[in-house]
Amino acid sequence: MNKIHPENYRxxxxxxRRQSGIVLDDGKDYLVEARLLPVAxxxxxKNLDDLCAKLRLLSxxxxxxxVVDAMTTNETFFFREPAHFEALRSSVIPALLESRRAxxxxxxxxxxxxxxxxxxxxxxxxxxxxxxxxDLRIVGTDISSPVLERASAGVYNQVxxxxxxxxxxxxxxCTQRTADTWEVKxxxxxxxxxxxxxxxxxxxxxxxxxxxxxxxxxxYFDTTTKLRIIEDIHKALRPGSYLFLGGSEVSLPMGSxxxxxxxxxxxxxxxx
Length: 272
Ligand SMILES: C[S@@+](CC[C@H](N)C(=O)[O-])C[C@H]1O[C@@H](n2cnc3c(N)ncnc32)[C@H](O)[C@@H]1O
Hints:
By secondary structure, the chain is of the alpha/beta class. It has two domains: 66 residues, Chemotaxis Receptor Methyltransferase Cher, domain 1; 190 residues, 3-Layer(aba) Sandwich (Rossmann fold), CATH 3.40.50. Helices cover 43% and strands 22% of the residues. It is built from eleven helices and ten strands. Strands 6-2-1-7-8-10-9 form a seven-stranded mixed sheet. A three-stranded antiparallel sheet has the order 3-5-4. Bound molecules: S-adenosylmethionine. S-adenosylmethionine (SAM) binds next to loops.
């Protein structure tokens, strides 16, 4: 296999950055090849240079999307970073139950939800807290349609269902459909909706949130984009709401709109 021409590599870097904000570092040819060659072959294109020639024509929007989808990293699992869920359960939700008791409504956003495990983990945790009289909503968003389709279906294979999900919760909130597939129960699906959304644009249009999980996605963007998204999330948070970032994202400068919090070994942010 010929290596991708450097000029085409630069073209792909720019295409992916423009379409998703994802910064593809120099020298990741192996990654690009591993992820994009299957897309090219699927379209009857035999190598990445020809794929770039086709992309340059701007004639095939679906191919453009598939290239971006293939370059997103969708790694996720249930109750990822358990300290976040423990901080929510023991500190954040009790504080919100107090401050929002007048309208008894809480809205959560799983930004960059990937295949949905984060949103369903939130739903399970809330169900376990028995907040029956409260109106609880979880919105999951992602830039990639294939992962959102999977999130909406709420169907996971044996490996996925075993990653992070304690057995008692699996047995209570999921139904086994086949030897290798499990489906989340309607009680969770009713609480969660998924929608296509690019974090770089018009966050305010999604509504106002009490808790935002924006984890393990900012790492893929350049600093200007990361900071702008944090600023935009702040505008979409009601005062006294909470933001959770991924473990490697909490060291970002958060500006004066947030207070850094520490509970249950988790670092997170409260909007002021
Ligand atoms: C590593 S996953 C994180 C999943 C989950 N938040 C977690 O921490 O387990 C990153 C997700 O970010 C999504 N993503 C990448 N760029 C995005 C953008 N500009 N807007 C929204 N989502 C994006 C990807 O499609 C991918 O599903």
